[in-house]
Amino acid sequence: MASKAATTCIGFILLTASSIAAIHRSHGEITETSFIVVSYLSLVLLFVFLRRFEEAPRNSPARGGAKAGVWVVTALLAAVFSWRVSALMPWPVDAIIWVMATSTVLGGFYALFLHHPGVD
Question: Model pTM greater than 0.90?
Answer without folding.
Answer: no
